[in-house]
Structures are given as structure tokens and as C-alpha cells.
Amino acid sequence: MKNNLNNVRNNWGDYINPHPAVMVVAKRPEITFVKGKGSWLWDNTGKAYLDFVQGWAVNCLGHSPDILLEAITRQASELIHAGPGFFNAPMLQLSDALVAHSCFDQVFFTNSGAEANEGAIKLARKWGSVHKQGAYEMITLQNGFHGRTLATMSASGKAEWESLYAPKVSGFVKVPQNDIDAMRAAINNNTVAIMLEPIQGESGVHPASHAYLQGVRELADEHGVLLIFDEVQTGMGRTGTLFAYEQSGVQPDVMTLGKGLGGGVPLGAMLIKKEFACFEPGDQGGTFNGNPLMTAAGFAILNALVAPGFPEQVKAKGAMLAEGLQTLSARYGLGEVRGCGLLLALDCAAIAAAEVVDQMFSLGALVNAPRAHTLRFMPALNVQKSDIEHFLSMLEQAFASVIEKHAVKGECA
Ligand SMILES: Cc1ncc(COP(=O)(O)O)c(C=O)c1O
Q1: Which domains are present in the chain?
Q2: Ligand 1 neighbour 238 (Cβ under 6 A)
Q3: pLDDT tens readout for residues 5-63
Q4: 205: which residues sit within 8 A by CB, 6+ positions away?
Q5: Ligand 1 centroid to 332 CA: how many Å?
């Protein structure tokens, strides 16, 4: 019986799981990654890859930065875990630092972005039950992404998830992004909060306009509903400021973080303004929340991200990458370049983005395709300019060979 598992095929065409003891939730390539440093990863055969995915926009200072190694090593020798019922020093340091560098007053730590959003949903519902006659409905955006717990999948506006894991958690109303009239029309007496990403990352990097965010803030104030920004992907310096909300002229009431917060270790957070604090002891928690090893890592990362000149160099490198992508787009008749800082996307017109991803993988580079015809770029925030140049020349090679392959076959990619 066990041996047969080696031969089990799933319903994804010819994909065969090369490691049958690992549950299949993604089509993973056969190689194993064994080492990473900065913008580079190495597999078990010794092949090097220039990494512009960075663990899904997680390793904001690249692979294994020295400051992270030092913080984790030092903390591991002092205290790894005491439990969520107690304070610990790194938890306090990181809470104070996040409060000092944002418009928020209080922090709740989690293990992931989805868990931070789940916490924000609970906070909104509790707030609605205490302050808004039991209102519980949340308005979220079509094509938005908030995570993979049942509630955050229900909050997400991913069309492919419509019927997955039915029945969904109820109470989420979806409206199109950048349509203030649709948002206004969706608000009713049962609305407790609006939750959105300032830039939708998983949908293919689609920014909410600043005018839209300002309009949403006004609507939230007018109707007394919470405004929650999911900055799991846009936060921690990714867009050229520590948080994306800073560029919009709007302060949300609640913000969630994940990904870059731990710089590679699992850490998320929900930040709130103190007037919205409504949890009572026992309402929310989790065994690892505020774990000192993770928060020590987060504190080291945050200090590096707020160092003088750091955000400016993110903007400069983002502009350099965007310019290179524009040049490629013009040369090969591709589409729009979108995004901000080092969260960028390129539409590939008729070319299948997955083919470019595969070609880049063969050449020794990692890039992500969040949509069938869109590539997304999320390199380390301290990526070297020479690595951006190198990456762009590999990308040009990849496009040229995909286009040539299809020209030979006389078809569209
Ligand atoms: C905007 C946003 N929110 C939430 C999440 C979920 O975070 P996690 O995968 O850490 O649960 C993601 C992950 O891609 C995200 O991009």
C-alpha cells in the first residue's frame, strides 16, 4: 500500500510528486534548496538561482542576513519560548518600535498574515457587537487576498475560491477596487468594517488609487465603520515607505502585517489605534503569539528597515527595475508595468507567464506568475544594482527564447 503512494498521480496533468511523504499542495520542482545568501539561492545540485521571489516577499533583507542570524542566535541562547501568558523582552521591544514608527498604539503578534487578518476580523466583529448594535458585515474587494484560513478565504475576492470549502464564513460583501460609488452603495447598518490591501499583491499588483483610499476613509468616518488595511504584502518597506498607507495620506484604524516583518521567520501582527481596543482576556490568543525568538528577529529587521537612507534606496532600486521592465515591454510588445517600490508586475500580453517562469528557472532565476499573463517581482529590498541588471538580462533572454519557440511553431504563447 505504502509503495503504491509513489506512483499516485494527482489531477494536475503529468505532475508526479517526487517526495510522496510530502502532501501535494503545490507543483514543486524536483530540486531541493539547500542554501541561501542575499539575493542568491543554491539547490542540491549546486546550481545557483537569482531570487526575485524571496520566499513570497518575505526575506526583505535577502536570504540569511547577518543581522537576522545574530539576533536569532543571541535570543535562542537566552529564551526561545515562555508562552503567550507572559511578557518577554523582544515582544516588548518590537511592540514599542512598531508603535513608534506607525500611527498605531497597540500590537497583537501572530504567526502568519492570515492569522493577523483573522484577528482583525474578530476584532471588528467584537467591536460591532459592543459599539454598533451587533453589526458584523465586512466589505472587502474583488480580487483581494487575505489568507487561507476559512474566514480569510471568505474575505478574499479570488474568483477560483468561490465554491472551495463551502459553506464559506458568511458576512463578507465584495465590491470592485477603485469604485467609490460601489463602496458607498455597499455600506448599510450591518456594516462594521472595510478591509482592503492598499496594493493588491496576489491579484497581480493592482494599486488602489490614493483618491480612492481617501474616499474610503471619508466613507468609513461618515458611517462609523472600521477601516482595516491588510499590509501583509505591502508593509515593512516593500513599497518604498515603511508602510504603504503613509503614501496615501490616509491612516487606517487597523493594519495587519506578515511576510517581511520576520524577514524569513514566521511572524505577523495586527496593529490598532487604542480607541478600537475591545478584546478582553481570553477573546484572542495562540500558543506561539509573541514568541521571543520570532519577535527578536522582527526587532532586528525593523531596525534595519528604518535606518537612514534605507527607504530611499528601495525607491531608487524599484525605479531602476521598473525602467528595465518598461524597456523590455517596449522591445517585445508586452503590457503594463505596475506597482511601487520593489513590488512590481509586468503584463506579458499574449505570452504565458508560466513559460517565462520556467525559462527563468532553467537559466537560474526565480520569478513569480500570480496570473496567467502577469509576472511579479519582489526581490530583497537591499538587492544589489548589479543583480537587478543581471536579472533583467536573464529576463530578456527568457522572453526572447519563449517568443522564438512559438514563432518556430507558428503559434501564440
Ligand atoms: C495581502 C496578503 N494578506 C494575507 C496574506 C496571507 O499571509 P500568510 O500566507 O502569511 O498567511 C498574504 C499572503 O500572500 C497577502 O499577500
Answers
A1: 3-63+309-409 (3.90.1150.10), 66-305 (3.40.640.10)
A2: no
A3: 444 444 566 788 899 999 999 999 999 999 999 999 999 999 999 999 999 999 999 99
A4: 199, 338, 339, 343, 344, 345, 370, 374, 376
A5: 32
